[in-house]
Amino acid sequence: MNLLPPDLQVRRVRQFQTEQAGDNDGTVEPGESVSLTIYLRNTGFLDLTGLTGTLTTSTPNVTVASGNANWPTLASQDSAANLTELVLNVGAGFSSPGAINCQLHLSSIEGLDTTINTSAVVGNPVFFDNGEAGTNGWTHSGGVDQWHQTTHRSASATHSWYCGIENSWQYSSNQNAALTSPPILLGNNSVLTFSHYYELEADFDYGFVEVTDGTGTYSVAGPFTGSNGSFETVSVSLAQFPAGSVVNIRFRQTSDGALVQEGWYVDDVFVGPPPNISVSPASVSASVDTTAIQEEEVYVSNNGGSDLVYSLLFQNGTAAADTGGPDAYGYRWQDSDDQCGPIYSWLPISALGTPITWIDGEGDQVRGPYALPFEFPFYGAMYNRVFVSANGWVSFADSINEAFSNTSLPNATAAEAAIFAWWDDLKPQLAGTNVRYWDNGVDSAAVSYENIRAGTAPNQGTYNFQVLLTKRGEARVFYGNMGTIRLTSATIGVQNEERNIGLTVLNNQAGIANNESRRFALGPRWVSVLPVSGIVPPNSVDTLRLSFLGEELCGIPSLSGLVIRSNDEDSPEVTIPIIATPLANLDAPTNLTIMPIGNDIQLRWQAVPGASAYRVEYLFDIGGLPTIVGTPATNSFLHVDALNTSFGYYQVRALP
C-alpha cells in the first residue's frame, strides 16, 4: 500500500459477493462468475470525488470480466458501495474451495492513489471440529498453558477442549493461555458457532474469543466470566472478514493471582455459511373459547448453511400500568393493580403438601430439591425441581446460597435461577411458622410461607406469601397478610442462572400491599409459548406452540407480538403480531347437583344446547385459579377420591 497524507485515506469496511451465471444456489463454483460489492470508507479529512477503482488478479484459472468501478462522492468518514459491478469469471479448472486474491487500485480527483488487497471465495468452505479426531491441527500456548482434550465434560459425543488441570478440575492462577485453530478459509459472511461451558472467577478471570487474519487480532466474543451453568451455543458473525480471508480462531483464558475455579470447556467449533431464518405464518389471529385453552403453531425454518440460534419473548401487549421490564432476556412483571394483571388467589394449602422445617442454627439454609410434576421454562432453560430458601426465595439450581443480606438484581451474590418473593433475613425456625411445598401432580406447584417472621425482637414483621409455578412458564406470587411492620427491607424480583440478567420489582422500598399478586413471565397472562429458545440445523424446522388461555384474555381483542431473536445477521429480530378474540360463550350449565358416594363425588347438571363437552373445574377459593378435574362429553361426572381433597368449590363450563 502506498503511503498517503492524512487528508487522503480510504479503507475497505465491508464486502459481499454474489453468484452470477451459475445455478443460483448462492455458492460460487468453478465455471461460474462472482460479483463483488465493496464498501469503502473515507478515513481522511478531505472529500473524495470521482473515486474509481480497477480490479486485477493473478490467481490461476480466474479472469476479470468487469474490472472498472466507481463510487459516489464520499465526505470524510462516510462509506458507500461501488455503483458499477466488479465481476470475476472462474474457470472450470479452479480448485474448490479456494480463495481468489485480488488487488483494487483506487484513485480520486483530489489525488488519492492507493492499492488495497481484497479477495473472493469459490466453493463452500466449512470448518467443523467436535474434538473427537484428536488435536486436528489445533495448537495451544501461553502463560500457564493448561489447554488439553478431556472427556470430563462435552457438548456432544465424548471429547472437548479444556483449560484446567485434569482430575483436580481447577485451573491455575496468572494464566494467559490460548487455544488456536488451524488456518480456516472464510466464505461469504461466515459465522463462527461453538459450544462452551465455563466456571471462572466472576469479574477477575475471563475467556476471550479472538480472530487473527494476518493484519491483526480482533476480539469477536466475550469476555466470559462467572458461570453459565451448562453447555450453551454461541454464534458470532465474521462478516467483517471478507470472503477468501484465511483466519485462525483463538480461545484465550486469563486468570489473576487469587481464586480459581473449574475453567473453560470448548466443543463443536464450526465456521461456515450464515443461517437464514424464515418464519410462518406472518401473523397469528385466534378466536379463543373463553372456557378453553387453544393452541396455534408457528414454524421457524433455517434455509442457511449453519445452525440458527434463536430465543423468544413477547411484546407487552395490552398491559399498561403497574408493570416493569423487560430485562435483557425479556422477562416482565405485572401486579394485580394492572387492568390486565394477575388475579389474586391465595391457595389454601396450609395442611397440604410437604412441610418444610428448619431448627435453630439453620435459619439461612436451603431445602430440597422438590420434584416438579412438569418442566418449568426459565431464562431459556428447562427445570424439573425446585429448592426452597429460608430467606423467602425459590431456586431451580441453587442449593447452597445462604445470603441473608438482600440486594437489587441481577447480583452475583444472589441465588442462581431464582424467584425472590420476599428476600430478607427471615426466621422460619421460629415457632408458628408454616412453610410447605405443594403440587397438583399435573401443571401447578407452589411454595407457601405462612406466619414467617423477620426476627425474634418485637416489631420485626410477620409475613404471608406464596409462589405459584405453572407449566405455562409463569410464576405468580400471592401476598396475603403482610402486616404493617418492616415492609421496606426486602427484595422482590427474578434472575437467571448465570446471575447476569435479572429484574427488580422492589429493593428496600415501599410498594407491597395485602391481598395482591405479582406475575413474572415472558409475555401477557393470556398467551405463552414453548419452547422459549432453540437451535435449528440447516434445512430444518422448529415448531413453536402458542397457548391461548381463554379465561385470561384481556381486551377485545387481546393484542401482543411474538419476537424471535436469532443469529441471522440480515434478520436479527422478527416480530409476529398476535391477535386473540374471545368467542361468544354458550349458556352456563344449570341445576348442578353434587352427591357424595363413598370418597367420590357425583356431579350432574342440565345439558346445554350446542355443547359438545363440559369442563369440570375445582377451586380452592371463589375467584381463584381452577384445576381441571374432567372434561366429560355428557352432563355428569364422577370426581374420584374427591373427599380426600381440602374444602373447595366446583364450577362447570359448557364447551362448543
What is shown here, in short?
With 656 residues, the chain is mainly β. 0% of the residues lie in helices and 49% in strands. An eight-stranded antiparallel β-sheet has the order 27-28-40-37-36-35-34-29, with no helix packed on it. Strands 10, 12, 13, 16, 19, 20 and 22 form a seven-stranded antiparallel β-sheet that branches. Strands 11, 14, 15, 17, 18 and 21 form a six-stranded antiparallel β-sheet that branches.
Structure description:
It contains no helices and 51 strands. It is mainly β. The strands form ten sheets. Strands 27-28-40-37-36-35-34-29 form an eight-stranded antiparallel sheet, with no helix packed on it.
Tags for this model:
single chain, 51 strands, mainly beta, 7-stranded antiparallel β-sheet, 656 residues
What does the radius of gyration come to? Answer: 31 Å
The structural class is mainly beta
Give the strand line-up of the largest sheet.
Answer: 27-28-40-37-36-35-34-29
Main sheet attributes: strand count, strand direction, barrel closure: 8 strands, antiparallel
- Cα-to-Cα separation, first versus last residue: 77 Å
**Structure summary, number of beta strands:** 51
- Helix-residue proportion: under 10%
Secondary structure: elements and pairs:
Layout: E1 10-20, E2 33-42, E3 52-57, E4 62-66, E5 68-70, E6 79-81, E7 86-90, E8 98-107, E9 113-122, E10 127-129, E11 139-143, E12 147-150, E13 160-163, E14 176-180, E15 184-185, E16 191-200, E17 206-212, E18 217-224, E19 226-227, E20 232-237, E21 246-254, E22 263-272, E23 277-280, E24 284-288, E25 293-302, E26 308-314, E27 323-324, E28 332-335, E29 354-356, E30 366-378, E31 381-389, E32 393-395, E33 418-423, E34 434-439, E35 444-453, E36 462-470, E37 475-479, E38 491-495, E39 502-507, E40 516-521, E41 527-530, E42 533-536, E43 540-549, E44 558-566, E45 573-582, E46 593-597, E47 600-604, E48 613-619, E49 627-630, E50 636-639, E51 649-655
Parallel strand pairs: 24-45
Antiparallel strand pairs: 1-2, 2-6, 2-7, 3-5, 3-8, 4-7, 8-9, 10-22, 11-14, 12-13, 13-22, 14-21, 15-21, 16-19, 16-20, 16-22, 17-18, 17-21, 23-25, 25-43, 26-42, 26-44, 27-28, 28-40, 29-34, 30-31, 31-32, 32-33, 33-38, 34-35, 35-36, 36-37, 37-40, 38-39, 41-43, 44-45, 46-47, 47-50, 48-49, 48-51
